Automatic annotation (TrEMBL):
InterPro entries, alphabetized: Cyt_c-like_dom (IPR009056), Cyt_c-like_dom_sf (IPR036909), DUF1924_SHP (IPR015170)
Gene Ontology molecular function terms on file: electron transfer activity; heme binding; metal ion binding
Signal peptide annotation: 1-35
Keywords, comma-separated and alphabetical: Heme, Iron, Metal-binding, Signal
Ranges in a coiled coil: none
PROSITE patterns hit by this protein: CYTC
Domain of life (superkingdom): Bacteria
Protein name from the UniProt record: Cytochrome c domain-containing protein
Keyword Heme: yes
Residue span, Cytochrome c domain: 55-145
Lineage: Bacteria, Pseudomonadati, Pseudomonadota, Betaproteobacteria, Burkholderiales
């Protein structure tokens, strides 16, 4: 028995427009999936590979909490420990937790990671951070565990 016709359209054979809409929906879904193109651990490894040096969480802790000759440190805006929402030191804008265990979206989009390291390093250091500085900070940030809230006290300088 032939398929019924509905105003000239056969539901088992989508129109070119319906196919185009379906393809666009798939493309959009795929592009949204690429927003999280990496992990914090992968970012740390990327910078460690570029620097050619092993990472040091302790160097990262010291770097994060130091003022580097200026008014601000990373902790000025991200807090110490960087496990809760804070406010930007000059704008007052809310900043989500920096430690990946407390904010799973952190360091998952390479373009955003590069953008924010560039901006924030320029604010704190008046230069871009080196690859080893980025790797070390991430090594320290990756040590925070949302299941161990008591760890914060030992991380204060």
């Amino acid at each position: 028995m032939p398929a019924p016709h509905y105003g000239g359209m056969n539901p088992s054979h989508p129109t070119p427009l319906a196919r185009m809409v379906a393809l666009l929906a798939l493309a959009l879904a795929a592009s949204l999936g690429h927003a999280a193109d990496t992990t914090a651990a992968s970012q740390m490894q990327r910078w460690s590979d570029v620097s050619g040096q092993p990472v040091s969480a302790e160097r990262g802790r010291v770097f994060f909490n130091s003022r580097h000759g200026g008014e601000w440190s990373c902790a000025s805006c991200h807090g110490n420990p960087p496990t809760t929402a804070t406010r930007h030191a000059s704008t007052g804008k809310t900043i989500a937790p920096l430690a990946p265990a407390f904010n799973p979206e952190r360091f998952t989009d390479t373009a955003k990671v590069d953008k924010w390291f560039r901006r924030n390093c320029n604010d704190v250091l008046q230069r871009e951070c080196t690859a080893v500085e980025k790797a070390d900070v991430l090594a320290w940030l990756l040590q925070f565990d949302a299941k161990k809230p008591g760890q914060a006290a030992k991380d204060k300088p």
